[in-house]
Amino acid sequence: MKTLIYLLLILMVTSCEKKNKKTPIHQKSKTENQVHKRYTIDAKSISIVWTAYKFTDKVGVSGTFKDFKFETKNATGTIDSILNESSLKIPTLSVDSQNEIRDPKLRSIFFKTFHTDTIKGRILTVYKDSGLVEISMNNISKEVPYSYIVKNDSILLKTHLDLTQWNGQEAIEALNKACYELHIGPDGISKLWPDVTVEVQFPLLVRLQE
User: Fold this and answer.
1) Is the pLDDT of residue 10 over 60?
2) How crowded is residue 133: how many other Cβ atoms within 10 Å of its Cβ?
3) What is the pLDDT of residues 99-145, one digit of tens each?
4) Separation in Å, CA 91 to CA 17, 79, 87, 133, 199
């Protein structure tokens, strides 16, 4: 009988020791808690695409700018923190529509009449997928809305400009006069719209920090 009691006591002590050594179910590893995904923008790979519109039925003509300067207060962080108060300065002489006839006219006629040698854009607010950007041209600054999505490790930002808000009508008319025949649509009307769509792609580099 004494031997049986002794064996039961040993089993109880062993069972308690195993329970005390058990790891809590909800405890996370130190490494999992310390690692956070953050980003930085690959400034050298930024691309800027503009689309202007001709003809009565609004056919798009696209181009880029070969030169620009990107600045941000937060080189590394969340997407919101990197975009907020970031800016682009774009020399208009770097315009490139891949058309040897059109590009000299854009430089010497449109932007000269528009009194704009540098286009400046500065992001004022960043929300979940939109915000406000300040665009400065022709000695005028205007706030316009933009939208953005994150796709394939890039921020794709898009905005729409009405150049009449920057007193651009004279420049539009001067360019349309210089390219009158090129802007004649199927209806026989020569038309150059004041609307311009701008799309900026910001490639992202992922940073893992502890």
Assistant:
1) no
2) 23
3) 999 999 999 999 999 999 999 999 999 998 999 999 999 999 999 99
4) 74, 26, 13, 18, 17
Strand partners of residue 205: 40
Q: Which of these CATH numbers, 2.40.128.110, 2.30.130.40, 3.40.50.720, 3.40.50.970, describes 35-209?
A: 2.40.128.110
- Which candidate, 206, 196, 174, places its Cα nearest to that of 121? 196
Distance CA 97, CA 199 (A): 15
> Do 34 and 19 touch, CB atoms closer than 8 A?
no
Q: What are the sequence ranges of the domains in the chain?
A: 35-209
The set of residues, in sequence order, having a beta carbon less than 8 Å from that of 111 and lying 6+ positions away, is 92, 93, 95, 117, 171
